[in-house]
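Hmm, how's this folded?
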Amino acid sequence: MTRVRAHRRADGTHVKAHNRRTRPRAGTTTAAPRRTAARPSTAPSIPAPAGPSTRVRSYRRADGTRVRGHHRTLPPPAQPWPAPGSAAC
């Protein structure tokens, strides 16, 4: 059993904390057999972002719009200022 915390749905409904049954583990005899043949993907493949990236969790904007989770590329690190008296520039 998995414990689910109390939360509020997007439509404003309050859900009490409760226990949820977990999925059966791989290798159990009570689970239905899984398909072994891979299904062809219908979604286009998206290339991995070049450079460092970070994961942005989904969130709601102030106007109520939901923004789905996504990856965002990080800006390059800032260059430090040259030391005083150096011959740079």
